[in-house]
Automatic annotation (TrEMBL):
Topology of the protein relative to the lipid bilayer: Multi-pass membrane protein
Record-annotated membrane-spanning stretches: 17-36, 146-166, 178-201, 207-225, 237-256, 357-378, 390-407, 419-437, 443-466, 478-501, 507-526
PROSITE patterns the record matches: MFS
Main location: membrane
Protein name according to UniProt: Solute carrier family 22 member 16-like
Length: 566
């Protein structure tokens, strides 16, 4: 059958292995840019600008002659810093206002006389942790604080729009041009962000950077799946996620070494620039060439692949095409009339056609949503957990790698549902346990948070394939597309969820924990798809998990290919 021929070439041979690692190398930069804002928009401790010529400083029971010595003791919201000038004036400095003490005689921390309140003319920052960030450059504090908080949600909005635009364009003009264009733009916009010199331009360039990064990530999934065989497809798609996790670790490392935001941004952008030197050598995928009728190029590509993989160049495009067409024809003849009608009026409403399918679709969407929300809440929020923020972020990236490994093995051994549901429940329990941890045992909170991230990453990595298997051919692309839309909604909501840590440090984790637990319970009601053939009609899909289904495995493989390309 079609698949046997396909398997002969499309396993992970030398040719595909080189292409695969080359393509996912650039996926690291997507992880980098998605999380770079953690340190770009970092707010250090700050106070209202102090008057010049300060002679003495008091804070609680600490005294000093320079502000720099006070920062280590200063806690925002825990009383003002009192300063005395050479002229004898006494000021109380808080983050967003300063108070002049009237007729003060003794220099003490407590003062019960009359005061006048003034607004800040500027701000002084603690430069021990953050040398320079967007916040210190453009004073995005107090009434301008919301601007700093808007930087990440606008980036995630760019991710959402980029995924919609580039996924569609890649089907029209090919995978290769999009991979090249998006990586070149990633480089250009990434460097431009560092030289914006103005907050609004900074947000705009980050928005464009988000669009191209997201476009690359969407198209690279399709690209690697069209070059690798069914046997290794689970592994290859999972490890694109792993490359993203490496990006998170790079951010933590560079953030630790470089504390000036624009130098940090340039180094992060340059770290994946070698990709530009070889991406123009990438071939177009054989399936795309065949779909567009460019058989001569497809044939040359198949011969090159055979040569690299040390196989005889016996496979002809015509064979591959005829066999696949033949199988599709046989498959279509049985349901030709019905399929034609269905094709015309298929919409997202068909995912909610019956009560059973509506429940399934709602649960799937919920898993996509919580997967993405949990993923970004844990990654972006890891720096608020206490302890060393750089180590926390590094760990948040590092726990992902084993989670994909375990996820892959568990998916094929115990099944999709039996991996996804326990992972979500574990994530939920870990998050809810964070709340009972005493504040002074930071290490325990960090361990629980990483457990949550580990568990959610398993569910997030698995849902792509699980959705493909839960829906029939006629609506499969729509199901995966709408799922990833929910996933993008989750990522836009995530930064706002992280900001709730201002109300209570563990509130974001609590919200994710409760949702993950509820969705984990709902996942138990989904059918198991491990070892089940792919369905082609809504009736077959609805019957999943209730009655045995018999269908040719070769047709399956072919259908899976069609979906991945769609």
């Amino acid at each position: 059958g079609c698949t046997t021929v396909e398997e002969y070439y499309f396993v992970l041979g030398m040719f595909q292995a080189c292409l695969y690692f080359a393509a996912i190398f650039q996926a690291i930069s997507c992880g980098i840019h998605y999380l770079a804002s953690v340190f770009l928009v970092q707010t250090p401790k700050f106070l209202c600008d102090a008057p010049s010529n300060i002679t003495d400083i008091l804070y609680r029971n600490h005294s000093s002659t320079s502000l720099a010595d006070i920062w280590t003791h200063y806690k925002p919201g825990d009383g003002p810093v009192v300063v005395r000038t050479a002229g004898g004036d006494q000021w109380e400095l808080s983050p967003c206002l300063k108070v002049l003490r009237l007729d003060a005689i003794n220099f003490k921390y407590e003062f019960f006389g009359n005061k006048t309140v003034e607004s800040c003319g500027g701000f002084v920052y603690d430069h021990s942790e953050v040398e320079q960030s967007i916040v210190t450059d453009y004073d995005l504090v107090c009434e301008k604080e919301w601007l700093a908080k808007l930087a990440q949600p606008t980036f995630m909005l760019g991710v959402l729009i980029g995924a919609l635009v580039f996924g569609d364009v890649a089907d029209r003009i090919g995978r290769r041009p999009i991979l090249m264009a998006t990586s070149l733009c990633q480089f250009i916009f990434g460097v431009t962000v560092a030289f914006t010199g103005n907050y609004y331009l900074f947000v705009l360039m980050r928005f464009l950077l988000a669009m191209v990064s997201s476009g690359y990530l969407v198209v690279v999934f399709v690209y690697v799946t069209e070059f690798t065989g069914i046997k290794v497809r689970t592994w290859t798609s999972m490890h694109v996620h792993a490359a993203f996790a490496v990006g998170i670790m790079v951010v933590a490392l560079v953030g630790y070494l470089v504390r000036v935001w624009w130098i940090y941004q340039i180094i992060l952008t340059l770290s994946t620039s070698p990709f530009l030197l070889y991406c123009w050598k990438f071939p177009e995928t054989p399936f795309y060439l065949m779909a567009k009728g460019r058989y001569k190029e497809a044939q040359e590509l198949l011969d090159t692949m055979a040569y690299f993989n040390s196989l005889p160049p016996t496979l002809k495009v015509s064979e591959l095409k005829d066999e696949c067409d033949g199988e599709l024809l046989n498959d279509n003849k049985q349901e030709d009339g019905r399929a034609m009608q269905v094709k015309k009026r298929l919409s997202i409403l068909d995912m909610f056609g019956s009560l059973k399918m509506a429940g399934r679709s709602a649960t799937c969407w919920a898993i996509w949503f919580i997967g993405s929300l949990g993923y970004y809440v844990f990654s972006l929020g890891s720096v608020n957990l206490g302890g060393n923020q750089y180590i926390n972020l590094f760990l948040a990236g590092a726990v992902e790698v084993p989670s994909y490994l375990i996820g892959c093995i568990a998916m094929d051994r115990v099944g999709r549902k039996k991996t996804c549901a326990p992972a979500l429940l574990l994530g939920g329990v870990a998050c809810m346990l964070i709340i009972v941890v005493p504040q002074d045992i930071e290490i325990l909170a960090i361990v629980l948070s990483m457990t949550g991230k580990f568990a959610i990453a398993i569910a997030f990595g698995l849902i792509y394939l699980y959705t493909c298997e839960l829906y029939p051919t006629i609506i499969r692309s729509l199901a995966v597309g709408s799922g990833s839309m929910m996933c993008r909604v989750g990522s836009v909501v995530a930064p706002f969820c992280v900001y709730l840590a201002d109300i209570w440090i563990y509130l974001p984790q609590l919200i994710v924990g409760i949702l993950a637990f509820i969705i984990g319970i709902l996942t138990m009601f989904l059918p198991e798809t491990l070892g089940q053939p792919l369905t082609s009609t809504l009736e077959e899909a609805e019957a999943l998990g209730s009655k045995p289904n018999t269908k040719n495995a070769a047709v399956d493989a072919l259908e899976m290919n069609q979906t991945i390309k769609a």
